[in-house]
Amino acid sequence: MPHQEGAPAGTGVAVPILALTLGHVFSNAVRTLPAVAADVLATDLGLSAEGLAAVTAVFPASFALAMVPTGVALDRWGVRRTALVLLAIGATGAVLAALAGGVAGMLLAQAVLGVGCSGMLMCPVTFAARALPLPRFALWSGIIQAVGNTGMLLSASPLALLVEWRGWQAGFWASAGLAVLAWSAVALAVQERPLPRETARRTVWQDAREVVILARSPALRPLMVFAFASFAAVLGVRGLWGGPWLMEVKGLGRVEAGNLLLLCTVALTFGPALAGVVDRLLGRRAALMAGSHALVALFILLMAAGGPGGPLAAAFGVPVLPPAFDAALLALVGLVISFQVLIFPAARALVPAEQTGRALSAVNMSFFGGAAAMQAVSGVSAAFGGIAAALCSFAAALLLCSAGFLFLLRRAPR
Which domain of life is it from (predicted)? Predict the structure, then answer.
């Protein structure tokens, strides 16, 4: 029998969580696809690199805007129905992207994809938060991130090969097929619990207002600041600028670049589980979160410094450091940035169970609002200083938001 959402944890909890996590796999694949198709996408759409950054920034912007209604839907109508509706929207967005013949069509597709993907992480995380005790939820939040990040494995070498063979449109068609697969798995494996009476008595407007109130609350404010730069760095380095950096600056072919990005993605797959283990052993969650951001900022700056004419390359007496240097740094970025997963148990511990969906959605709103803002900033940076400047803009954001997180944490109510 399918597991009842919100029921006590048991052996039946893994299947519905993993079925819901397939949606996160789809979301990661479709939003990082531009990393291995940026050149052909820009050419076919008649865009510059910064223009493509602006177009793809519509995805995280619409994602962030959809987080309020998504949080309301999760707590009001349940995970199953929310996931099925969003996966249908996501599949539609992938089809629209595959059929896009110009900038307007791709803008529409990215907006629809952003809405459809807005709950792909929150659905399994909310389900797990309701079904599991807090210690097990911390472990499962890492598992959900690890499994979901395999979507980025698909957008590395496999989709790079597909794009090379059949064009960028084929990548979006493949993503649409993955969304359909995820929809089928959720329909079969996840069963919804009855609507609580207290939820039925509230209006939708009251629920939406509560998401905004939670986002602005002193308790959640440090996490909101932390989240603003966190996923922006993943999407910027792995999802947008990593491919152009390796192909245009380091001179690699598309498949070679995809192979190096694969290292980052493998690290992103194992990193969340490592973060959960380290968190349980050390118990210094805030230090781990801020420290991981600072380290990732350092890795990004080192990557830029190893580019043509960079200070690190000059220190070694070479025009540019070899791609193997970037491969090592990309793997470290993927491993260390994964400590961002600790934000979910941190947020869950601050609210009662009935507010889980809204609180987690508020945090995710900052994840993707920051990604949209930073993608636009990185495009401007690239226009003035090239791809290296675009990468450095993410390093600066990570350092600033980590400092803000620690500052606000000291002032937060205990």
Answer: Bacteria
CA gap 25, 175 in Å, rounded: 10
| Residue 110 belongs to a domain | yes
Q: How far apart are CA 255 and CA 28, in angstroms?
A: 19
The pTM of the whole model exceeds 0.70: yes
- Number of separate domains in the chain: 1
Contact partners, residue 414, CB within 8 Å, separation at least 6: none
Residue 199 included in any domain: no
173-177, 179-183, 265-269, 334-338, range with the lowest pLDDT: 265-269
* Residue 380: domain span: 13-191+205-411
309-340 in b/e form (b: 16+ CB < 10 A) is ebebbeeeeeebbebebbbebbbbbbbbbbbb
Tell me how far apart the alpha carbons of residues 75 and 189 are, in angstroms, rounded to a whole number.
19
CATH number at residue 58: 1.20.1250.20
Q: Is residue 3 part of a domain?
A: no
Other CB atoms within a 10 A radius of the CB of residue 39 amount to 17
Residue 407 has what pLDDT? 94
**Per residue in 63-119, pLDDT tens?**
878 877 887 888 778 899 999 999 999 999 999 999 988 888 889 999 999 999 988
Q: With cut-offs at 50, 70 and 90, classify the pLDDT of residue 8.
A: very low
